[in-house]
């Protein structure tokens, strides 16, 4: 009994194929109904349209033409009587053509069309033709009474002719009877044509309504089928897919999937069995991983490669654990020994770092000792400022000042490198500047002497076996009495701001430390007559080369010049503070790339 129920259940399963087939079958049926109805309606419309085109419209047109011909014949026969003329008069010829050519041709065409008429209308048109034949016979009688110009002089003939055409005459009565019959026929044919047209329009309206209803039905049916397919096929498959993806990531489902009686149900059952098997394998792997090597585990089948591999892993891990415990004991002793050695090394490194830091700090004090004190700067350059921002503890940039023969000398010097190497170079440069000042007066000759002395100090020979050490600087001498400024520069220019315009006094393009006996170079001495409210600036390249801003680019010399122009009218202390805050804002979170040095002076 149970097997019979199972067989019936299998036989009447509503499988995915049956679901899809049923849905598309309904859609196909609707499409067939629409196609068949459309085909029938179009065929009927074609027949109706052909009837209107070939019968109704030509019939009405021909009857209207016959009516017009009758009216014209009445007019022409009246003219025949009342207008005396010859037999070959054009108007008389027209009347003759109507009876001999036009009427027979039209009569033949109407008879051909009348084949498609009703029996009643065919009898009516036959009566019309009889009356027309009689009418044209009466016309012939009139023509015989008045055949030529002379016959109009016969009063009796003219009287008889007038009587036939006049009110109550045979021709007049016959013509009116024919027109009445034609009007009745025309009205009847128009009515039939309107009926046929209305029938065609009704069929089109029905087809349009059917299209609308079936269109809505197809859309609604399609949506329902799509929803049904989504709920019964797509969504379950997506759930199975997500579970498989979770399993591929090692995540197990929290709930058991609901069973079904179709192919998806079979996949669900298989997946449930897979999940149970994997959970059992996972639990065993967890126990083995936690060191519980006595846990019982049976592989899912004789072909379960993972299960057999886990059993082998349990045996191997038990042995490895025993070996590792022994190694841990040995390695622990070794690590303890290495830790003690590292601690000893750390103590040595700490001591060395302290010594190096102390040495650098001492070097900083030495370097600060060679820099002009603030009091000296205020005394010899009272209306000036110095912005000095080393990159490291000690700096490769330094500023130098001195006095001789009533003149004040000041320089902004940028030595090769920064930090400790730059600091050593700054001491060498400081001593060389002091020596040169004792021997020479103009900035150019001082730089020539400085170049030679630095080259001899740093370069071993003149054959090119050199180091790249040296310095760039701008050196000025200022006579406060005459307001005359002399300037010479090695790569570093001088900026003169006068009348809100920046003038750049260019430096020579070779650094201090590039002197050789076989090709000596000399520096240019620039003499500038200063005026009241002039501003003088000398500097190193650190300010313009600082990276920052919204795009992390260099500050650049153009922006530096614009910044200096914006300081015109401010005091020297405010200029220094503004330059300091500007470069700090520009730098932002970025690192300072080089030592920064700017010296400014105002001529009051």
Automatic annotation (TrEMBL):
UniProt lineage: Bacteria, Pseudomonadati, Bacteroidota, Flavobacteriia, Flavobacteriales
Keywords for the protein's UniProt record, in alphabetical order: Hydrolase, Membrane, Transmembrane, Transmembrane helix
A molecular function (GO) term: phosphatase activity
Listed SUPFAM superfamilies: HAMP domain-like
Official protein name in the record: SpoIIE family protein phosphatase
InterPro entries assigned to the protein according to its UniProt record, in alphabetical order: Bact_Sigma-Reg (IPR052016), HAMP_dom (IPR003660), PPM-type-like_dom_sf (IPR036457), PPM-type_phosphatase-like_dom (IPR001932)
Residue span, HAMP domain: 231-283
Gene Ontology CC terms: membrane
Transmembrane segments: 20-39, 210-234
Pfam families in UniProt: HAMP, SpoIIE
Gene3D superfamilies linked: 6.10.340.10, PPM-type phosphatase domain (3.60.40.10)
GO biological process: signal transduction
């Amino acid at each position: 009994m149970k097997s019979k129920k199972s067989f019936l259940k299998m036989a009447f399963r509503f499988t995915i194929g049956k679901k899809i087939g049923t849905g598309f079958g309904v859609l196909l049926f609707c499409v067939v109904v629409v196609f068949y109805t459309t085909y029938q309606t179009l065929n009927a419309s074609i027949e109706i349209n052909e009837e209107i085109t070939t019968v109704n419209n030509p019939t009405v047109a021909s009857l209207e033409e016959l009516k017009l011909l009758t009216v014209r014949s009445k007019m022409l026969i009246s003219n025949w009587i009342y207008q005396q003329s010859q037999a070959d008069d054009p108007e008389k010829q027209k009347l003759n053509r109507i009876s001999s050519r036009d009427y027979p041709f039209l009569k033949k065409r109407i008879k051909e069309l009348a084949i498609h008429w009703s029996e009643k209308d065919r009898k009516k048109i036959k009566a019309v033709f009889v009356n027309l034949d009689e009418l044209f016979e009466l016309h012939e009688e009139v023509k015989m009474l008045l055949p030529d110009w002379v016959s109009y002089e016969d009063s009796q003939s003219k009287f008889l002719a007038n009587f036939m055409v006049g009110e109550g005459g045979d021709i007049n009565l016959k013509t009116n009877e024919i027109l009445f019959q034609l009007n009745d026929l025309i009205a009847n044919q128009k009515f039939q044509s309107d009926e046929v047209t209305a029938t065609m329009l009704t069929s089109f309206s029905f087809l349009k309504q059917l299209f609308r209803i079936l269109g809505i039905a197809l859309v609604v049916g399609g949506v329902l089928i799509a929803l049904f397919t989504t709920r019964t096929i797509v969504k379950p498959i997506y759930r199975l897919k997500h579970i498989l993806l979770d399993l591929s990531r090692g995540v197990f489902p929290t709930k058991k999937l609901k069973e079904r009686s179709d192919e998806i149900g079979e996949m669900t059952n298989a997946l449930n069995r897979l999940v149970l098997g994997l959970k059992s394998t996972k639990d065993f792997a967890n126990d083995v991983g936690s060191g519980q090597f006595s846990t019982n585990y049976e592989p899912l089948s004789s072909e379960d490669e993972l299960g057999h591999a886990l059993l082998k892993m349990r045996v191997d891990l038990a042995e490895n654990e025993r070996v590792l415990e022994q190694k841990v004991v040995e390695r622990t002793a070794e690590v303890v020994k290495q830790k003690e050695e590292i601690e000893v090394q750390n103590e040595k490194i700490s001591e060395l770092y302290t010594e190096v830091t102390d040495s650098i700090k001492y070097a900083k004090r030495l370097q600060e000792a060679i820099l002009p004190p603030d009091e000296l700067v205020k005394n010899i350059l009272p209306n000036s400022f110095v912005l000095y921002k080393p990159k490291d503890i000690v700096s490769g940039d330094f500023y130098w000042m001195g006095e001789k023969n009533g003149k004040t000398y000041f320089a902004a010097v940028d030595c090769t490198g920064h930090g400790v190497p730059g600091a050593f170079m700054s001491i060498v440069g400081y001593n060389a500047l002091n020596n040169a000042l004792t021997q020479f007066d103009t900035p150019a000759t001082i730089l020539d002497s400085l170049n030679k002395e630095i080259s001899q100090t740093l370069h071993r020979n003149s054959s090119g076996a050199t180091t790249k050490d040296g310095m760039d600087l701008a050196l000025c001498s200022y006579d406060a009495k005459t307001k005359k400024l002399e300037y010479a520069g090695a790569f570093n220019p001088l900026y003169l701001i006068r009348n809100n315009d920046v003038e750049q006094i260019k430096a020579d393009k070779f650094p201090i430390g590039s002197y050789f006996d076989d090709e000596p170079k000399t520096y240019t001495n620039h003499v500038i007559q200063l005026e009241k409210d002039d501003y003088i600036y000398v500097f190193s390249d650190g300010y313009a080369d600082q990276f920052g801003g919204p795009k992390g680019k260099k500050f650049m010399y153009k922006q530096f010049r614009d910044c200096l122009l914006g300081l015109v009218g401010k005091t020297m202390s405010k200029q220094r503070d503004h330059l300091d805050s500007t470069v700090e804002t520009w730098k932002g979170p970025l690192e300072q790339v080089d030592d920064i040095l700017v010296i400014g002076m105002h001529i009051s």
